[in-house]
Amino acid sequence: MGAGPAGLTVGNILRAAAVDCLVLETETREFIEQRPRAGVIEEWAVRGLEKRGLARNLLDRAELHSACEFRFDGERYRFPYGELTGSHHFVYPQPLLVTDLVREYADVRGGQIRFGVRDVRVHDIDTDRPSVSYTCQETGEQRTVHCDFVAGCDGARGVTRAALPPERVRVARHDYGIGWLALLAEAPPSADCVLFGCHARGFAGQMPRSPEVTRYYLQCPPGDAPENWPHERVWAELQERLGASGVPPLTEGRLIEKRVLDMHDYVVEPMGSGRLFLAGDAAHLVAPIAAKGMNLALHDAFLLGDALVARLTSGDDSGLGGYAEACLRRVWDYQEFSQWLSEVYHGTAAGDPFRAGTTLARLRRLFTSPAAAAAFAEQYLGTAARY
């Protein structure tokens, strides 16, 4: 269920082992291949894709980032995490990765996929023959697929999480009480790396996506409306919050996307029941504060795909039995880092002098303490979570 990075990766792993599977997706192929989403992929995740034959275009086309820059107190502070760790980030927009995964799954490995499905329902997950029913958009015909397992990779608004028996699951949720205005600008990045602006007016971020397009974020009230942020106001706030001594103004351009994200996290435990297993945002949502969401989805997909192959080809249940526990160790590690980083990003704008002071102390420590710098670099790159 779901043709995002998690679902398509699971499907590709199954097809590589000659296991039959069907991917169901409510959107069109064109939509998922163009939908703006994350773009920062950690090196361990890229190596996992490469191991499974899924990273050829990524390795050829992705930009490599080995530093980021914090801007606070009117100054700029470059953080060269590549020098500290020997690792780097790959910047490869999620639509490009999804395009690669769809092509490999459907056009190369012969996987079945249905786009534009409606009225999706999951049935009988506690039996050895669960099923999924859906309405075909083209014909209006209702169809039912009987299967051995269901992989719920259909995101935060999908149907598979709701199919779990409520008495067996716990959903832990955290709300940050802030919003981010997510922007895509037709403008080249104004620096060669990610920028984090920690400002009394609110957080701002620059995330390069390509030589022509840049992702920006602006802290705003939760539930704010994009219409409250016309072109002039957006760029005035970005210039102010990302400004620093000795740096030129940001390069401005047309805004091609504006949407408000309310910052919150949740974790579903356990990540499945019976023959239904969740992966990606269906199982856990981590706010984009630390750019961890797609990486967690890929981690789930590697473990779930390999576990399903072991069960279906050799009868080995150990991977499925330990799947949720193995995933959740990394999930909770990333959630904790996201909370810590949120205070760094947003503490100076909290209106509380004490929080502002401790936030600035944390920021300065990153650039004066080798131990603090090493710990941050490991968490930022995901190399501290060796599971």
Automatic annotation (TrEMBL):
GO terms for molecular function: FAD binding; oxidoreductase activity, acting on paired donors, with incorporation or reduction of molecular oxygen, NAD(P)H as one donor, and incorporation of one atom of oxygen. Residues 2-337 form the FAD-binding domain. Keywords: FAD, Flavoprotein. Transmembrane segments: none annotated. It comes from the Bacteria. This is Putative p-hydroxybenzoate hydroxylase. It comes from Streptomyces afghaniensis 772.
